[in-house]
């Protein structure tokens, strides 16, 4: 496990997004859906860190299953396609059902995540002009080995509409040879996005507990101080570190407004 309560508290994490994804559990989808929602129901009112429900792939919705909470953020697909859009590994485009769903999500203040869409679906979604984010993607210009990473033009378009790109710690998304990935690799991608757009578009999208291996120097949520020190050592100001460490996400998700009293 990369995430546990003691390490979150030790690192001073204020908000933790918990993604529910049932697609990998072939034959056990409904079981995993019920377990995840039950766990979230029990934990959702914790004071520190505040936990937020994310929907990674809308397979459950296509099955007509109940969604008892509005997700903070949702991606239409996981790695394959579904009735809404084409995911990584698919050539399918955004569908009419997908367009309808993202507009519904936007009305309900659920943010749209492009992280698992293929290039075709993602570009069609961006053309709708909605505020979207990439919760865990990196810059394709620095690491072209995985098609989950974003081309420059898509990073610019996401930022133009106020979105945030969360740099993920997945080694293969950081370096073409994943074994070379380090904390410095994480910062390289963050600086690239900041220089291409602005510091207001940069965030973290660690994918803790969603990946088997992590970059050298990072073992889980207890390693946040090392990552933040790495930013400081590169000359980032306290203000910019605060934005990257959570401020930009809280602004995009409107969390400060939601919890202001």
Commentary on this structure:
Helix 8 packs across helix 9. The longest helix has 16 residues, at 238-253. This protein is globular. Strand 3 (73-75), helix 4 (96-107) and strand 4 (111-113) form a beta-alpha-beta unit. The model has no long low-confidence stretch (mean pLDDT 95). A 5-stranded parallel sheet has the order 1-2-3-4-5, sandwiched between helices. It is built from 11 helices and 7 strands. It has 2 domains: 14-130, TIM Barrel, CATH 3.20.20; 134-261, Alpha-Beta Barrel (TIM Barrel), CATH 3.20.20. It is α/β, with parallel strands linked by helices and 261 residues long. It has helices spanning 5-11, 29-43, 59-62, 96-107, 119-126, 152-160, 171-174, 183-196, 224-233, 238-253, 255-258; strands at 15-20, 50-56, 73-75, 111-113, 132-133, 165-167, 202-204. Helices cover 39% and strands 10% of the residues.
């Amino acid at each position: 496990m990369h995430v546990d309560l003691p390490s979150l508290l030790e690192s001073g994490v204020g908000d933790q997004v918990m993604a529910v994804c049932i697609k990998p559990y072939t034959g056990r989808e409904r079981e995993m859906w019920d377990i995840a929602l039950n766990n979230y129901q029990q934990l959702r009112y914790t004071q520190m860190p505040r936990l937020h429900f994310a929907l990674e792939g809308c397979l459950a919705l296509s099955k007509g299953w109940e969604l008892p909470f509005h997700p903070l953020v949702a991606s239409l697909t996981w790695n394959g396609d579904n009735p809404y859009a084409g995911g990584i590994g698919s050539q399918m485009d955004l569908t009419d059902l997908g367009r309808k769903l993202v507009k519904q999500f936007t009305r309900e203040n659920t943010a749209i995540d492009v992280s698992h869409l293929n290039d075709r679906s993602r570009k069609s979604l961006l053309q709708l002009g909605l505020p979207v984010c990439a919760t865990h993607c990196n810059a394709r210009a620095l690491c072209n080995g995985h098609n989950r990473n974003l081309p420059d033009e898509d990073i610019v378009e996401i930022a133009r509409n106020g979105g945030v790109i969360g740099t993920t710690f997945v080694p293969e998304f950081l370096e073409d040879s994943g074994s070379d990935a380090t904390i410095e690799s994480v910062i390289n991608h963050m600086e690239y996005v900041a220089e291409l757009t602005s510091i207001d578009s940069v965030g973290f999208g660690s994918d803790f507990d969603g990946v088997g291996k992590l970059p050298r120097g990072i073992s889980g949520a207890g390693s946040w101080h090392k990552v933040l020190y790495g930013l400081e050592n590169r000359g980032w100001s306290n203000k910019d570190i605060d934005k990257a460490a959570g401020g930009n996400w809280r602004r995009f998700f409107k969390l400060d407004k939601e919890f202001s009293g």
